[in-house]
């Protein structure tokens, strides 16, 4: 494997310096709650990561409090999402440990500890997958709660996003719940200095169900959200491009039905294979690709299908070399969702182009919504 | 007793191998969730030269729930009452599972260095502190000499 630039510099440094780097990287992969290696790392919008199980436990204690990040205390308005990069990095790390178990762990006790840790990590990933399938991620807190929103046109009064009741600071002292609809308020109403203090990542968000809105209003809002394009750069005018963003909310119900199809993106991280190098490479690939995230143009997905098969071997791994080659090509961006693909897909020899692109669209939704 | 969570074992180990200056914490032999704690009074405060005994207990839900901390040594402080209970936000509403034994004890030590009479637990002490700060600090020094002598 050819290393260049900073990577090659680091790899030719003294052992001591390399150790320091490894130590820092390993420290960064620890959960601030359980102090273990992150297991199903979930990222909050502030950027801090915790194990899915730890974060869920934290959200579920103090039921009537606002949700906040254990580390920086920023309000958790949006549902945390899976941090694929850390997940894959640690998956390949544990693959190495597993493969070198006999050499690295001389004592029986150490091996037993490693086995237990691996078992726990497997359980955690199953636990997360199960919650996701059931549609009960984080015990459904993000579906069943509301956010305090202050609208500048409304004198900046904080209101419940669910029922629009005014949230008076004195009502919120003991319990962070809406006095009217009793929804748990995820952020802190009294700290709403201005409407921008809720971080919705610049994207319009929709709370509640169709029933909460008057006739036509819901559809109108959904339309607005759907047509919203944060970059607004993609002006190629394809009708599909507007659909590629903001899918999530309307498709939610449909998504539940299709969960089984695409829930298993975790499967692909459980590397059951000796190809450590391949796994490592796909991680690098993911880093590279993540940096290139942009509006994904689904309409051109079809062209890339042939690529997909070229670059994937029968086990569903992205071969390191082919990825490296294609790194410089712009179309790599389009392949981002493909890497998340579950292994099942590769078993299907004949997949019609239409089905394929449809499936990938759903996957996009998932990775967005998670 | 249910097995001890790994996090508690790790924290305990680190408290021994990498202790916080001016603070000791040792788990009880019979109950590894119960710690005997000593905190040195911060230099420059009325508690200087004092060594304060505390007890710290990690509840079953720790780290989702804050540790219970209490002064065993008598202390004259607006945020600590006669029973040794401490008024500190991170031990109550502002607890976070990212905090740990060492950070909690550091916060308690910081509370000794900067009492907050505007959010009192011991009302009489706080009143004294606001009305006559020099006198209150003198009393705190005397109590330190009397009860917390090393």
Instruction: Give me the number of helical elements of chain B.
Output: 4
Pairing-aware structural class of the strands and helices of chain A? mainly alpha
- Strand residues, percent of chain B: 15-25%
- The radius of gyration computed from the alpha-carbon positions of chain B, rounded to a whole number of angstroms, is 16 Å
Rounded Rg of chain A = 23 Å
The helicity of chain A comes to 40-55%
**Total individual domains of chain A:** 3
Uncertain segments of chain B are none
Order of helices and strands of chain B: HEEEEHHH
How many runs of DSSP E, i.e. beta strands of chain A? 7
- The proportion of residues in beta strands of chain A is under 5%
Mean pLDDT of chain A: 69
The strand count of chain B comes to: 4
- What quaternary form is this? heterodimer
**Which two protein chains have the largest interface (Cβ within 8 Å of the partner's Cβ), and how many residues from each?**
A-B, 14 and 14 residues
Major sheet of chain B: size, sense and barrel closure?
4 strands, antiparallel
Structure description:
The complex is a heterodimer of chains A (370) and B (150). By secondary structure, chain A is mainly α. Chain A is 45% helix and 5% strand. Chain A has 16 helices and seven strands. In chain A, a hairpin with a 7-residue loop joins strand 5 and strand 6 (158-160). In chain B, strands 1-2-3-4 form a four-stranded antiparallel beta sheet. In chain B, helix 3 (123-131) crosses helix 4 (133-147). Chain B starts with 5 loop residues before the first helix and ends with a helix. At the A-B interface, helix 3 of A face helix 1 of B. Chain B: This is E2 ubiquitin-conjugating enzyme. Chain B: The active site is at residue 87. Chain B: InterPro entries: UBC, UBQ-conjugating_AS, UBQ-conjugating_enzyme/RWD. Chain B: One of its GO terms (molecular function) is ubiquitin conjugating enzyme activity.
